[in-house]
Amino acid sequence: MATGEIPFNYIEHNYDLALAIISSIHPKIHQNIPVEYVRIMKQCWEANPDNRPNNKSG
Questions:
Q1: 47 within 8 A of 56, measured Cβ to Cβ
Q2: Cα 10 to Cα 5: distance, rounded to the nearest angstrom
Q3: Which is deepest, 6, 34, 41, 52, by most CB within 10 Å?
């Protein structure tokens, strides 16, 4: 969304990609993305759900 590029546009979107994503493959982080977006993206990739951002306040 931040770049207008489709994630993993260099890989066929299939079962193998789905397994790779589950195994922690991540999309490329472009240099022109705001630092705050990069921070949130990396938090979303955390294996531990307690370390991921949520929409709960307080």
A1: no
A2: 11
A3: 41
Rounded to two decimals, the pTM is 0.68
Residue 57 is predicted with a pLDDT of: 59
Q: Provide the residue type at 24 as one letter.
A: S
Contact 43, 53 (CB under 8 A): yes
Number of H helices, E strands in the chain: 2, 0
DSSP 20-44: HHHTT--PPPPTTS-HHHHHHHHHH
Q: What is each CA distance from 17 to 9, 38, 53, 56, in whole angstroms? A: 11, 22, 24, 31
Residues 6+ apart with CB under 8 A from 41: 29, 33
